[in-house]
Amino acid sequence: MSKKVGVVGAGLMGAEIALTFALAGDDVLLNDHNQTSLDRATARLRTLMEKGVGRGFYKVEEVEPTLARIRPTVELAAFSDREFVTEAVFEAHDVKALVLKALDEICPADSLIASNTSTIPISTLAAELPAARRAKFIGTHYFSPVSRMKLVEVITGFDTAETTVETAMSAMREIGKTPVRVKDVAGFAVNRMLHAFMIEAVKLVEEGVATPEDLDTACRLGLGHPIGPFALMDAVTSSLCVQAQEIMQEAYGERFRPPALLKQRVLAGYGGGKGKPGWLNSGA
Predict the structure, then answer these.
(1) Residue 92 above 70 pLDDT?
(2) Residue 276 lies in a domain
(3) Distances from the Cα of 7 to the Cαs of 40, 85, 116, 205, 254, in angstroms?
(4) pLDDT for residue 284 is more than 80
(5) Cα(225)–Cα(205) distance, rounded to whole angstroms?
(6) Average pLDDT of the chain, as a whole number
(7) Burial of 7 (C-beta count, 10 Å sphere; 0-12/13-18/19+)
(8) From 81's CA, which of 99, 180, 227, 282 has a CA 20 to 30 Å away?
(9) What's the rounded Cα separation, in Å, for the pair 75 and 31?
(10) For position 283, what pLDDT does the model report?
């Protein structure tokens, strides 16, 4: 049965979260603070689907109906009828807190509100909501690219109701994802493993043990990883990696301290991202 879904944040993650719900037949509102961001997201989703047709990811007849189910809006007030809302804004507590407080005022009392945070404990974010809303608040941590990656970590806060967990797990399966329930700790499960791995990879480069290119090759061919750590850092941006590691360093101590070389490259403008220089590309 079609749901009324809302996604706040039209960046790389939010736009593709909206797409996954639209592909499942849901009615989706995609919100961002300016029309330019929404236009960019809409264009990117069209390109993604059109390219995906040629690769066998989508059927040509899916493209227009799916995109038509995603309605962009700069007005958060339009979420007043949404049943399942996902916050997917910048990974900073204060930014997310503002969005969650606004959603609490706008969304119906029985709406499920989920956060796509990758590192911030759900109970910490839940503290920004009134006590009555916290039972309907949960974490749904997707992985990039959302359109291809099947895993979603489902994280419960101290006050999350079991019915909310069941609803969220069911919703993830309905959009073709595989949900895994994870305890509410900083970084959750996958990012704790991933960033420990990334930190060690950067240290190997710092020590001159091997180049980023050779380490990526070693991880693909020796460990069976689909993408090496340096290609991944270029894709998600090293600045986001530093940010996640600093959050986990605060929670767990020195083992998650971002390597000096990683921070230096970010400050020097070698943080990666589309069309920008990183570990493996010049940005040209």
Answers:
(1) yes
(2) no
(3) 15, 6, 10, 39, 35
(4) no
(5) 19
(6) 96
(7) buried
(8) 180
(9) 7
(10) 60
Residues 12, 116 within the same domain: yes
The number of distinct structural domains making up the chain is 2
Question: Would you say residue 166 has pLDDT above 90?
Answer: yes
Say if 284 falls within a structural domain. no
Distance CA 99, CA 237 (A): 24
Convert the pLDDT of each residue in 242-281 to its tens digit. Answer: 999 999 999 999 999 999 999 999 999 999 988 899 999 7
Question: Residue range 221-227: average pLDDT?
Answer: 96
What is the number of other CB atoms lying within 10 angstroms of the CB of residue 203?
A: 14
Alpha-carbon Rg for the chain, nearest whole angstrom, is 19
Strand ranges across the sheet with 70-73: 70-73, 27-31, 4-8, 84-87, 112-115, 137-142, 151-156, 178-182
**Angle formed at CA 199 by CA 194 and CA 203, multiple of 5 degrees:** 145
Q: Which residues are catalytic?
A: 118, 141, 153, 191
59 lies in the same domain as 22 = yes
Report helix, strand or coil for 27.
strand
Same domain flag for 251 and 135 = no
Same domain, 81 and 174: yes
Amino acid at 56: G
Residues 207, 145 share a domain: no
* Confidence at residue 1, expressed as pLDDT on a 0 to 100 scale: 75
Q: Are residues 121 and 242 in the same domain?
A: no
pLDDT at 275: 86
3-state secondary structure of 83: coil
Provide the residue type at 80 as one letter: S
Band (pLDDT 50/70/90 cuts) for residue 64 is: very high
Domain span holding position 250: 191-267
Q: Are residues 43 and 22 in the same domain?
A: yes
Question: The domain that contains 231 carries what CATH number?
Answer: 1.10.1040.50
Q: Is there a single domain that holds both residue 123 and residue 47?
A: yes
